[in-house]
Batch of 2 targets.
Target 1
Amino acid sequence: MATLNYKHLRYFWMVAKSGSIARAATQLHLTPQSISGQLTEFADTLGVELFRRVGRRLELTETGRRILRHAEDIFSAGDALLETVRDQSAASATAFRVGVSDSVSKTVACQLVAPALALAEPIRLICREGRLAALLADLAVHKLDMIIADRPMPSHLSVRGYNHLLGESELAVFGAPALAQTLDGPFPACLNGAPLLLPGEDFAVHARLMRWLHDHVQRLHVIGEFDDSAMIKAFGQSGVGLFFAPGAIAQHICGQYGVVLLGTIPSLREQVYAITSERRLKHPATQAISQAARQTLAG
């Protein structure tokens, strides 16, 4: 009994689906002569006629149509097998669950977490965003492996967790070019009377920034406070007010949002912490994040 040559079956299937030897040859990156020879050998092995020529077209015989139905089933089963393997590969990736506080710059968080995806051991990143209190609750019940926040975990919470300072960056002030042109004087005098977009009370830097503004800005004009770092930048990009963000990513902010850097405030440092349930950063992903922080937060 003849054994089935699956390569010949694939060529037959391609010709039957494309409608011509020439089109099948193009899709398979072979010459029409090679495909024609393979089809002839396949038909001779099976001892049947697969196609009949009608004018310039090839038309399946009744036997050819039955073989085509079997070929469809065979290749569908092959595709299902490959999909199963891919699913198993994805399932084998270690889940790494990170919570990002609303008050942390999304650019900073992205640059910190990205190296974890480049590890030799595959990582499936699960990222959650929210207020620190809610994220700490998830950490307590092991729904998160790490939290990235702008402050250490409050000491009064009965959550077993450890604070790891990843780094810090001086605060900088940005504004849309059209708004910046309306300002008078050098920085920080140019902030007098300027519309300001401030980080809300959920930001660790909020109280210190307010004190600095009262000490250095004679005419304070606050038009909005925001609890989300991305929202602040979106409003700042629109030109309604100046906003504050980490100076370490000033180049990225200016490029992405089309704003200009007005000045930095060295006395105000915005810190970034990793909060984990482990005393030491042992997980390869947390170690990669810690190493990335040295570059990202150093500007």
Target 2
Amino acid sequence: MLLVLGVYLVAGNLAGTAGGGAKTLAKGSVPAAYQALVARWGNLCPAINPALLAAQLYQESGWDPDVVSHADARGIAQFIPGTWAAHGIDGDGDGDRDIWDPNDAIPSAASYDCELAGYVKDVPGDVTDNMLAAYNAGAYRVIQAGGVPAISETQNYVRIIRSLETSFAAPTSRVDPSEQAAGAIAYAQKKLGTPYLWGGNGTADQGGRFDCSGLTKAAYESVGIKLPRVANDQYNAGAHPRREELLPGDLVFFSDDLTNSRAIRHVGIYVGGGYMIDAPRPGAVIRFDPIDTPDYFGATRVTEDGAKALPTTA
């Protein structure tokens, strides 16, 4: 109870603190293979920034350069072949325009964004929101509507990318504490001593057992926030406080590759004092563990908007 009360006291003291909105990328949020590309091309025009471009690529493909959608959108930036033919560029200067090559596709996504921003620059409202709406629905519809059109798919696309932008940006100031953090910790505390189960979601047929991301998912679901099932997607559920800024309720992540959030292999719930509650491995039980280990990757302060922007299926 003292731990839970402490979370609310900290939340109250910091409630007026502004959230981060930096234009640089958060540590490891972009896979190392694409980090330099996103950082460079994300500054191509004022309507975009590296975090926004990263959010768009994550939403489009999950960083998969080989994915094909049901609509035949292809590659890491999910260009339809007809759009690629008109707007794809030779980003790496090797003499071809390859829709499957991230070295061409990522620069092309940035270039196309900036082109769309130019089309809608005189439309009322936020130019970046209007640009994203044009990417989804076409510039003509944005111009005709005088802003983001009343199309649910387009409105959701804009909302999701702008929410994800926060999770890919390195905050420049302290980020707001989660009001649900205390409840998530309370849930996890009740599970202390429960045996680990790979793939465990805490269901009755599994004997109420969890793996690491199953526990964090259930803890936040108990307070009304639905997280993705896997740890490397949970990393994108909010902004990323620095180690010295951690608050109880933050998710803390661990990886053997500290340059790539897609390689995250473990997650726990921070409780203060350098410790987390986690489901560590087969043969162990849910317990308190220290977070200051060589494989500590970083942390996420979970927000409702951040969680809603993420896929909820594995």
